């Protein structure tokens, strides 16, 4: 089976055939006619009218006028990357006949698109929103699209409500405000009238809606699917992607500032890390439920607003995804990639989840208008590596040159070809379906609060504080007081203390008693406080410097952190170089006015009396440190650098008298200390230090 190892190169070779390079070429029209002037239109004299016979002008302008295609109604803002997936072993053969999930010698090429949901293509990356995590597997048996999000549940249970939800969350129709934000009346009016949204709203108000990077973001298939093995036996399955770097988020104040400083923050992070060889990695994990256990839970497996707690059904690691190549053209690949839940391969099937059933129609329907007709699967990024032979003909953008006379089945003129498959074809799982034609939601879908309470109970103290603050911010933007009251009433079914805290912040009378007693159950797997915190890979570290800096401190810190996988940048008041204490030059990576602390994961202040004195006299440098401390980030300071901490108002932590000290993410060193870098790594790997007392945080 050695040929399997080359499988992921098949897609690369396919894409190579579609590349158009301008190198060494002369400019031509679309008909291949060479062009010697593309700066001046054909005119009747130097100041005369432009002549319509100028075919080059007309072709050039026509193409430009038609460059844009309709953006996605949702998930318009996105970034993508190619990679490969490999399953760990053949153990899943017991559950599925899908080859890419059962053959560990097979490397399956993939394309992954990450996205925000609500905003337009021009919106910022760091808005509070759900993130899409869509994966196209180019398998030998056809494409499989796992179209998921970074949250395991959804706002609604039935797809017929999807237009209502999207219309509610989109900018208000009378003024097209606000962009890429849920903090407005129509969304929260919908929420207060649709209690099935409450569980998802808890996730949306949590830090899960503010991912630090796509490489530090979980992915979920959301729905319950089926795996089907070679004997036709089915097993329910939930798909999870777990990032190698752990699941980490930004802080709300930080995201708003990043949206102004670098609206491309997440897509830039993805692109830069892949270009630098720091490839994002994820582990595919499956929650498997035997069909006979379908009804053993206190919720319905077909309800997309519910999770299966990992403490009840562990997420079993089965394979590894690596993203290792950036697209070469954003429009051709990332913008034109077409995902569809109906793209499945033998061994994977659907369930009767009503939201999933609706998506099976909606995604295909969407691509028809976005990509101009039924032949969008021939676009290179969408084309399968599996051979395509059928009787589809003509239509917009038909790329194939069909040579057979017969475009129908059965036929004799083409020898009966393409013939029906005898082996390896797709067989739908045989499930008996019987019932009256009705419009009615199952009673098993009616519990809208218990899992929202489970989520709340599972949060750490700082996560709960952030959720309360998010509700207060969002509802504080709602102008209609009765909508605020309606949401608080729903929250009182989730947790009384939560409802009271939110009410007190938005001017609503706090509820006197709980609508529903808190059941007290929790799921530790839901808390980001329990995420892995053992690496500084892909973390960005700002090292502040000015003339007179102790270059040895910079070298030591940079070497230690770079070796551990972090990205270190030296920042100064201006570009170029600064003078080290020994007189030598120190290269500056970026000028401080072009960046901000919110774009970094940690800040280090080297020693050097003159350097620190200059930084202490620079308001931007002082603010840089104070803001990083406010956002819970790791901070390191050596010798005189400790003075800048005090100037920035970093209080409530202990500093070293001699040697090295680490306290609440602040690492200080006086004199010689070999463990300064080790303590820095530990502080940065912890991601944030929200244990700092609020009264110790500078304004």
TrEMBL record:
<comment type="similarity">
    <text>Belongs to the catalase family. HPII subfamily.</text>
</comment>
<dbReference type="GO" id="GO:0042744">
    <property type="term" value="P:hydrogen peroxide catabolic process"/>
</dbReference>
<feature type="binding site">
    <location>
        <position position="72"/>
    </location>
    <ligand>
        <name>heme</name>
    </ligand>
</feature>
<dbReference type="InterPro" id="IPR029062">
    <property type="entry name" value="Class_I_gatase-like"/>
</dbReference>
<dbReference type="GO" id="GO:0020037">
    <property type="term" value="F:heme binding"/>
</dbReference>
<dbReference type="InterPro" id="IPR041399">
    <property type="entry name" value="Catalase_large_C"/>
</dbReference>
<keyword id="KW-0560">Oxidoreductase</keyword>
<dbReference type="GO" id="GO:0004096">
    <property type="term" value="F:catalase activity"/>
</dbReference>
<dbReference type="InterPro" id="IPR018028">
    <property type="entry name" value="Catalase"/>
</dbReference>
<feature type="domain" description="Catalase core">
    <location>
        <begin position="28"/>
        <end position="417"/>
    </location>
</feature>
<dbReference type="InterPro" id="IPR002226">
    <property type="entry name" value="Catalase_haem_BS"/>
</dbReference>
<feature type="binding site">
    <location>
        <position position="370"/>
    </location>
    <ligand>
        <name>heme</name>
    </ligand>
</feature>
<dbReference type="GO" id="GO:0005829">
    <property type="term" value="C:cytosol"/>
</dbReference>
<dbReference type="InterPro" id="IPR011614">
    <property type="entry name" value="Catalase_core"/>
</dbReference>
<dbReference type="GO" id="GO:0046872">
    <property type="term" value="F:metal ion binding"/>
</dbReference>
<keyword id="KW-0408">Iron</keyword>
<feature type="cross-link" description="3'-histidyl-3-tyrosine (His-Tyr)">
    <location>
        <begin position="340"/>
        <end position="363"/>
    </location>
</feature>
<dbReference type="GO" id="GO:0006979">
    <property type="term" value="P:response to oxidative stress"/>
</dbReference>
<dbReference type="InterPro" id="IPR020835">
    <property type="entry name" value="Catalase_sf"/>
</dbReference>
<dbReference type="Pfam" id="PF06628">
    <property type="entry name" value="Catalase-rel"/>
</dbReference>
<feature type="compositionally biased region" description="Basic and acidic residues">
    <location>
        <begin position="1"/>
        <end position="21"/>
    </location>
</feature>
<feature type="region of interest" description="Disordered">
    <location>
        <begin position="512"/>
        <end position="533"/>
    </location>
</feature>
<feature type="region of interest" description="Disordered">
    <location>
        <begin position="1"/>
        <end position="47"/>
    </location>
</feature>
<feature type="binding site">
    <location>
        <position position="162"/>
    </location>
    <ligand>
        <name>heme</name>
    </ligand>
</feature>
<dbReference type="InterPro" id="IPR043156">
    <property type="entry name" value="Catalase_clade2_helical"/>
</dbReference>
<feature type="binding site" description="axial binding residue">
    <location>
        <position position="363"/>
    </location>
    <ligand>
        <name>heme</name>
    </ligand>
</feature>
<keyword id="KW-0376">Hydrogen peroxide</keyword>
<keyword id="KW-0349">Heme</keyword>
<dbReference type="InterPro" id="IPR024712">
    <property type="entry name" value="Catalase_clade2"/>
</dbReference>
<dbReference type="Pfam" id="PF00199">
    <property type="entry name" value="Catalase"/>
</dbReference>
<dbReference type="InterPro" id="IPR010582">
    <property type="entry name" value="Catalase_immune_responsive"/>
</dbReference>
<feature type="binding site">
    <location>
        <position position="113"/>
    </location>
    <ligand>
        <name>heme</name>
    </ligand>
</feature>
<feature type="active site">
    <location>
        <position position="75"/>
    </location>
</feature>
<keyword id="KW-0575">Peroxidase</keyword>
<dbReference type="Pfam" id="PF18011">
    <property type="entry name" value="Catalase_C"/>
</dbReference>
<protein>
    <recommendedName>
        <fullName>Catalase</fullName>
        <ecNumber>1.11.1.6</ecNumber>
    </recommendedName>
</protein>
<dbReference type="InterPro" id="IPR024708">
    <property type="entry name" value="Catalase_AS"/>
</dbReference>
<keyword id="KW-0479">Metal-binding</keyword>
<feature type="compositionally biased region" description="Polar residues">
    <location>
        <begin position="513"/>
        <end position="530"/>
    </location>
</feature>
<feature type="active site">
    <location>
        <position position="149"/>
    </location>
</feature>
<feature type="binding site">
    <location>
        <position position="359"/>
    </location>
    <ligand>
        <name>heme</name>
    </ligand>
</feature>
<comment type="function">
    <text>Decomposes hydrogen peroxide into water and oxygen; serves to protect cells from the toxic effects of hydrogen peroxide.</text>
</comment>
């Amino acid at each position: 089976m050695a040929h399997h190892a080359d499988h992921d190169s098949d897609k690369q070779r396919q894409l190579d055939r579609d590349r158009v390079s301008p190198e060494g070429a002369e400019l031509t029209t679309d008909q291949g006619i060479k062009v010697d002037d593309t700066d001046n239109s054909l005119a009747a004299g130097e100041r005369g009218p432009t002549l319509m016979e100028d075919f080059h002008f007309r072709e050039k302008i026509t193409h430009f006028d038609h460059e844009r295609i309709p953006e996605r109604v949702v998930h318009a803002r996105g970034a993508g990357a190619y990679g490969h997936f490999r399953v760990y072993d053949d153990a899943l053969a017991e559950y599925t006949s899908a080859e890419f999930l059962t053959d560990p010698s097979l490397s399956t090429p993939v394309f992954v698109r990450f996205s925000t949901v609500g905003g337009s293509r021009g919106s910022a990356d760091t808005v509070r929103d759900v993130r899409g995590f869509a994966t196209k597997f180019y398998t030998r048996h056809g494409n499989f699209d796992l179209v998921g999000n970074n949250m395991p549940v959804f706002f609604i249970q039935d797809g017929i409500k999807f237009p209502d939800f999207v219309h509610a969350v989109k900018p208000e129709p009378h003024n097209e405000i606000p962009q890429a934000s849920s903090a407005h009346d129509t969304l929260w009016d919908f929420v207060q009238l649709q209690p099935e949204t409450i569980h998802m709203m808890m996730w949306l108000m949590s830090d899960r809606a503010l991912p630090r990077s796509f490489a530090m973001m979980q992915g979920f298939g959301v729905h319950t699917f089926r795996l089907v093995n070679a004997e036709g036996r089915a097993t329910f399955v939930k798909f999870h992607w777990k990032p190698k770097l752990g699941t980490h988020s930004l802080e709300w104040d930080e995201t708003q500032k990043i949206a102004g400083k670098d609206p491309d923050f997440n897509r830039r992070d993805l692109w830069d890390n892949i270009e630098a060889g720091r490839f994002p990695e994820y582990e595919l994990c499956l929650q498997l439920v035997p069909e006979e256990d379908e009804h053993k839970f206190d919720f319905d497996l077909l309800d997309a607003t519910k999770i299966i707690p990992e403490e009840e059904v562990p997420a079993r690691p089965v394979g590894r995804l690596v993203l290792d190549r950036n697209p070469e053209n954003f429009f051709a690949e990332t913008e034109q990639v077409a995902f569809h839940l109906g793209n499945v391969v033998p061994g994977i099937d659907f369930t009767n989840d009503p939201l999933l059933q609706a998506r099976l129609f909606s995604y295909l329907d969407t691509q028809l208008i976005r990509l101009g007709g039924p032949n969008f699967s021939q676009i290179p990024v969408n084309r399968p590596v599996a051979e395509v032979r059928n009787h589809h003909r003509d239509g917009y953008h038909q790329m194939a040159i069909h040579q057979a006379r017969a475009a129908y089945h059965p036929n004799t003129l083409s020898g009966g070809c393409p013939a029906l498959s005898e082996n390896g074809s797709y067989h739908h799982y045989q499930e008996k379906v019987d019932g009256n034609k009705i419009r009615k939601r199952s009673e098993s879908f009616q519990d809208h609060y218990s899992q929202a309470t489970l989520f709340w109970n599972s949060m750490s103290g700082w996560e709960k504080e952030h959720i309360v603050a998010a509700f207060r911010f969002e509802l504080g933007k709602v102008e209609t007081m009765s909508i605020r009251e309606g949401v608080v009433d729903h929250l009182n079914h989730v947790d009384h203390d939560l409802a009271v805290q939110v009410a007190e912040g938005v001017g609503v009378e706090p509820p006197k008693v709980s609508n529903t007693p808190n059941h007290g159950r929790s799921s530790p797997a839901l808390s980001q406080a329990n995420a892995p915190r053992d690496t500084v890979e892909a973390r960005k570290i700002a090292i502040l410097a000015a003339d007179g800096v102790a270059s040895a401190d910079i070298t030591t810190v940079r070497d230690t952190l770079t070796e551990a996988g972090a990205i270190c940048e030296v920042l100064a008041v201006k570009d170029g170089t600064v003078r080290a204490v020994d007189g030598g030059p120190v290269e500056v990576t970026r000028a401080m006015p072009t960046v901000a602390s919110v774009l970094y994961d940690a800040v280090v202040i080297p020693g050097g009396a003159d350097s620190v004195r200059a930084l202490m006299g620079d308001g931007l440098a002082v603010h840089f440190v104070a803001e990083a401390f406010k956002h819970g980030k790791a901070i390191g300071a050596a010798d005189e650098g400790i003075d800048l901490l005090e100037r920035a108002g970093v209080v409530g932590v202990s500093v070293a008298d001699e040697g090295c000290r680490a306290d609440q993410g602040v690492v200080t060193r006086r004199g010689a200390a070999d463990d300064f870098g080790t303590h820095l790594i530990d502080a940065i790997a912890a991601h944030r230090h929200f244990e700092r007392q609020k009264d110790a945080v500078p304004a």
